[in-house]
Amino acid sequence: MQEQEGYEWKTVTDDETIIRTHAWSPPGCHPVGCGLQLHVKDGKIVKVEGDPTHPITRGALCPRCLALKEFIYHPDRVLHPMKRAREDRGKDKWEQITWDEAYDIIEENAKRIIKDYGEESIMVFGGTGRQANTYYPLMAFMVFGSPNACYAQSGWSCYGPRATITAHLMGGGYPEIDNACRYPDRYDHPGWEPPKYILLWGKEPLKSNPDGFWGHSVIDLMKRGTKLICVDPRVHWLATRAEQIVQLRPGSDTALALAMLNHIVENDLYDHDFVDRWCYGFEEFAERMKQYPPSWAAPICGVPEEQIIDVATKFATFKHCALGWGLAVDQNPNGVQLAQALLSLLAITGNLDVPGGCTLGTPIAGDDDPARDMANWGFAAGVLKPEVWEKRLGAKEYPGFSTIMNQCHPDFTLAAMQNGDYKCRMAYFHSSNVVSGAIAAQPDKWYEALKDVDFAVAQEPFMNPTAMALADVFLPLTTFAEHDGHVQPHYGLNAAFEAAINKAVTVGDCKCDIEIMIDLGKRMHPEFWNQFDGVVDYLEKRVIPKGMTFDEFRKAGVIQPEEVYRKYEKGMLRPDGQVGFLTTTGRFELYSLAFELFGEDPLPYFEEPPFTPQNKDLDPKILEEYPLILTTGARTYVSFHSEHRQIPSLRAMVPDPLLEMNPVDAEKLGIKDGDWVLIENQFGKCRQRAQVTPTIQPGVVHAMHAWWYPEKDPEAPSLFGAYDSNINTLLPNGYIGKLGFGDTFKANLCKVTKDETNEKEEA
Ligand code: SF4
């Protein structure tokens, strides 16, 4: 562990105090932990700037954190707990209450519901995450004793699939681009080298700063010689600086990856040493890959055969190359196969855990069943009963999912509620904007399924459509500037560092999620929770590196683990200390015994997603009616899913939801840049503004997600215009793929027409 030399978390000058801290949502994003300096005067933040001493982000911030002051002091922020009568759900009839009263109401309802219907009838919904995303499962397991923590995105289509497939094929961790993030001297570190190529697959890291990877480091790497190859249906900013853009058809990614593997295997371009020593099942794998020559993939993907060959050759022969894999992997029913193919690509080309390749995290040791890791905390606390854990929704039906993910299965859960097999009696929205489709597919269906829940709580910094629609009690949340805490990028699966969140100011009566969890825990299970004397005590006992006090932790600044390459050669990936990977065979499994155990094909294959022009089983009438390929979900600089829509400086940059379409399609449809358009398919309809751009191919449109309008009527049925521009209403639940992962967020169909109310509105 390396600490930051000369770090001062707090500097007091004559007229202000400067607090150094590390960002976390809200209102930043998760979990990047960018360094900030917050200037505080008379108890208020007067200036926000990047911390130049942070070894990774080095003073840079993106607009979401630069708008911190606007977020914190926004007049619409909810600063006190509130309640309203159950019959007033959907109405703006809130009444301010004290924390004690709020907790009394929650305790009374939770205890009644548990007594009458069992712990499993309480569901804790989690969203984009607070404090490394761990607190909503903990609220379920350790406060209410329920096994049902729910991330309501169809196919759990964000990060979970990548992390799970990594766990199945090689055991824990998460492969990430080697951006020298574990070295205090970063790019000057002896022995580190930049990747020769980065294959950015369905990922735009500058905007998304995904999970634990600080996106701007791609630019740092390019300045040091790294070249980019972008695989994406859209030409984003980084793609315009790439050596190559592989502009494939949405949903065809797996075919492309398989064809690259075919070329590498058939032309003997693979790393024999790595394959012989560290891979299992190469013969079967090579035999399967024979089915997928580049000539087969080219027409499927709409990518020239020569380009597939060129990209595959470069990735296999330049030493070393890295992969940045994004949501294209998760949000696709063929995504498990894509993850398997991409991990296999890294493995057979010898790019795993080498300088300039993809580094591996050290798996959390000590349990054969990673899904039980946090549940074990609940068992140990005496709160979660093993027999109740067995009632986790969808766990038996999706074992490939549930042996790694500690949550209920979202599609199974929704279906069980719809068909009456499960009745949710209490919903706890732990920063989860389910109703407005921040992440959920068909959020209107979730709304319908949850409408009659006996009791509901929402904790958020702002009122939002979900809280307005369903909550009986509203708990106001702090931002990261208002509480102490802890940041660990990549949820600990490949953490570049750990660092403290340092409280700078107090705003209203807001509390952080850890504090609320402890407070409610003390009421529900005092025998366990009374041992924690507040947030800092909780952090010291359970979270921060062993043996450090919180004061020592925050004085240390950014704490980076030592980088060790080729951990599989050093016995660092297995709890038993043996060399190799944490799998049954001890090797990277090109032929997955885990998949075989789940009754699935152990080798990767291509399956056309359900709603594409190339799917031969698709009813031709659907294609006739909805001829455009719809892809969604790309990030912007100015929002984090449904957050930030009310922040003036951010909204000014992207005031309306945008539908990107090619000029050829726009002309055919009589649509001009800036026109409002209707987007429709067999599942739903919404309205966005056309952005006519050649950066997307003819025949494909991209729609922004998670739009609602804080300025519109808050009451039902409007709910802040939750369904006016909500592209997720066009995306169905239930079209999931292998192991229960993935759905059609990245590839669906739609039609687009000019919204004839255009002229009226503009006049
Ligand atoms: S990536 Fe941007 S929004 Fe996210 S924590 Fe860092 S500066 Fe804040």
Fold and architecture overview:
With 763 residues, the chain is α/β, with parallel strands linked by helices. Among the domains are: 189 residues, Rossmann fold; 185 residues, Dimethylsulfoxide Reductase, domain 2 (3-Layer(aba) Sandwich); 143 residues, Barwin-like endoglucanases, CATH 2.40.40. The chain has 29 helices and 27 strands. The strands form 7 sheets. The protein has a 7-stranded mixed β-sheet. The protein has a 6-stranded mixed beta barrel with strand order 22-26-23-25-24-27. β24 and β25 form a beta hairpin. α3 packs across α21, α4 runs parallel beside α15 and α11 packs across α12. The chain starts with 9 loop residues before the first strand and ends with a helix. The mean pLDDT is 95. It binds iron/sulfur cluster (SF4). The site of iron/sulfur cluster has 10 residues, from α1.
Mean of the pLDDT scores? 95
Instruction: Give me the secondary-structure category.
Output: alpha/beta
Number of strands: 27
What proportion strand? Answer: 5-15%
Please give the share of residues in helix.
25-40%
How far the N terminus sits from the C terminus, by CA atoms, comes to 62 Å
The CATH level-2 architecture of the domain at 100-157 and 366-477 and 512-530 is identified as 3-Layer(aba) Sandwich
For this structure, the quaternary state is: single chain
Counted by DSSP, the helix tally is 29
Characterize the main sheet.
7 strands, mixed
Q: What coarse outline follows from CA principal-axis ratios?
A: globular
CATH topology of the domain at 100-157 and 366-477 and 512-530: Rossmann fold
Estimated radius of gyration: 25 Å
Strand arrangement within the widest β-sheet reads 6-5-18-17-16-7-8
CATH class of the domain at 100-157 and 366-477 and 512-530: Alpha Beta
List low-pLDDT spans: none
Question: What compounds sit in this structure?
Answer: iron/sulfur cluster
